[in-house]
Amino acid sequence: MTRILIAAALVGAAVMLSDSGEQPVPPAPAALDLSAVFAHEDGAKDCLIVAEMCDSIADIIEWDGMQPDPLLATGVQLDEMRTRTRELMIKGESLGEKYPALRDAVACYLDEKVGNSGGVVTPAGRAAWVAAYRAIAESARAVIQ
To answer: If you count Cβ atoms within 10 Å of the first and of the last residue's Cβ in the chain, which end, N or C, has fewer?
Structure first.
């Protein structure tokens, strides 16, 4: 009986020592809830395409801003680059046509985070564009995780 009590005490101590009392922190919610948007047979594949495309756009905007004479200096140029990136990455297919709710959600999100001015992009504005596209990419990835 003494052995059982000692064993139970050791197990209890081990459990108490291994449990720091901290609960795992849940992941931060995605910037956009796109889970209902991709209700289509190609949804998972298209989520990855959106994530890769938005990460690429963010990378391009960020890299361009580090150049002595950035090519993407206005909101109009950023939007044209986004359009060309889509055309090149997915060969002209429009996921906005396939998923109108995606198009609308992303448009509203970008308007909220970066505005819709076609004018000169400041360094702070550029950082906002990069952050917004990274958040959209993360939101798309969250749908399939």
So the answer is: N
